[in-house]
DNA sequence: TTTGGGGGCTTGGTCAGACCATTGACTGGG
DNA sequence: CCCAGTCAATGGTCTGACCAAGCCCCCAAA
């Protein structure tokens, strides 16, 4: 009885957190599944005995996590419907935390290399003709020498996303796409600052084609290695040469607005 | 002029989304950094010309993503402070989406194998004596044969988390830990249903020690391979033998309520 | 002069009630 | 049979109020 009593602080749960817990409980136990409708906000208010504001804040959190899709009006598709759309939320999440410099750029590159290596291996093992066609379409578009940097970057993103999709592992694919999206604007900035864009584009095209060939051939090992080398090589040789600041990525001159 | 005009739907932004966008803009441009305080809710209300409910819903989203830490009262630590606590949010996110069956268990195993392989390689390359000590502590605790399944599982989780931390890549570490946490209760269930727990524990202990040795020796290649084999092997040989349902993880008999 | 306590202000948390906008279903007239 | 107008359901927004937690500061007492 005389030990230094571990007075852990009582979890000062806010009302909306309790509401959130109730709803999540229903999801975790399987009572609520994708496509099911939540009771209307006003009904939840009386069911749970809280204010509508509390209910709405809880719903907002679920929505931000891509687990809820609200829709106004009447009819079968109206109301708050349980959904499973993790990509958007995950992308948003990573963008935010990268901006908070909590995830240094080098770490993100490493993560991309890891995830996309895995994606490529899976893709090589089980890509369907449709998946391969999706990749080829992006390759073809990137082969057009008149393509703007922006479009090229978009196609590049799409190409890598297609590989991730082809792997068939939704978790890895979503993480891959989210990470790629999170660095999208940074890469675009780098593209713009390159001395010789054409040489870089040529190199990327060639590497992309090699990756596609390996996947189409079903060579997992080679596909994985090529993608990893593609990502690491590009960032090591080019990005670090342009981006001098290792951490920050913001305002060089302008202070705040105010 | 006669092409099929791509009438993309106007982004019906809700008020709180606009508020969110304004705040995120400040974060992305670097005007708001970790530790900075947001203006008080009531002040944001007049600055942005919206209701307090709208402001609060936006803040709730940021908080759910681990980018904000609200605190009542006055003083330096009060108000809404920009933070960077991604782990909790990410774990919550994955748990939710795994429950929504959007991420099949096999996919999660694959993701763990990928992420932890990378973590182990990084850890072997740059683990400090402190990191190694943290791993050894968990190993020692797991060596105690009287340890309950629950405690063993916790130590197991901690051991893998230590490896991820030791790798020094926060993004990969956070994803690794979140994924491991997300399957924590599932693994515990499997442990309970095993025929011969002691044999399994012995095997896990041996594999853990081998992994630790490789990391301590700085052998990245071997550490990565061992971890990947550890995760894949365990799940392949044991989990699939226990879990028969490939997708669902919930109520075998009860339909829905109501 | 120092110290202790208490009032008051700031800030997030909650609530009640009202109104608006969107959407689909119902219904009556052509 | 079809169309348009109406209506109810539902999420979105706003207003204004009160509560609870903390810190600051001033004043009284030692």
UniProtKB/TrEMBL annotation, chains A, B:
Give the keywords, sorted: DNA-binding, Transcription, Transcription regulation
Q: PROSITE patterns per the record? A: HTH_GNTR
Gene3D superfamilies, per database record: GntR ligand-binding domain-like (1.20.120.530), Winged helix-like DNA-binding domain superfamily/Winged helix DNA-binding domain (1.10.10.10)
In this chain the HTH gntR-type domain maps to 13-85
UniProt cross-references to Pfam families, sorted A to Z? FCD, GntR
Superkingdom of origin:
Bacteria
Claim: Chloroplast is one of the keywords in the record? no
The name this protein carries in UniProt is FadR family transcriptional regulator
């Amino acid at each position: 009885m005389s030990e230094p009593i571990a007075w852990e602080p009582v979890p000062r749960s806010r009302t909306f957190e309790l509401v959130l817990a109730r709803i999540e409980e229903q999801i975790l136990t399987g009572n609520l599944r994708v496509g099911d409708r939540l009771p209307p906000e006003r009904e939840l208010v009386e069911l749970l005995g809280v204010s509508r504001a509390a209910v709405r804040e809880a719903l907002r959190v679920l929505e931000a996590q891509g687990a809820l899709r609200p829709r106004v009006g009447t009819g079968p598709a109206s109301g708050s419907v349980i959904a499973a759309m993790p990509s958007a939320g995950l992308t948003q999440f990573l963008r935010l935390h990268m901006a908070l410099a909590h995830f240094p750029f080098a770490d993100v590159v490493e993560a991309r290399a890891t995830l996309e290596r895995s994606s490529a291996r899976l893709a090589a093992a089980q890509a369907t003709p449709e998946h391969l066609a999706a990749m080829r379409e992006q390759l073809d578009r990137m082969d057009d020498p008149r393509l703007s940097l922006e479009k090229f970057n978009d196609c590049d993103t799409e190409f890598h996303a297609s590989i991730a999709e082809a792997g068939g592992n939704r978790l890895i694919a979503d993480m891959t796409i989210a990470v790629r999206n999170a660095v999208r604007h940074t890469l675009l900035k780098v593209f713009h600052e390159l001395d010789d864009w054409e040489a870089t584009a040529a190199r990327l095209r060639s590497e992309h084609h090699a990756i596609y060939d390996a996947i189409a051939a079903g060579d997992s090992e080679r596909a994985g290695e090529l993608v990893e080398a593609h990502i690491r090589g590009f960032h090591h040789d080019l990005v670090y040469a342009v981006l001098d600041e290792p951490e920050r990525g913001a305002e060089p001159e302008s202070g705040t607005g105010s």
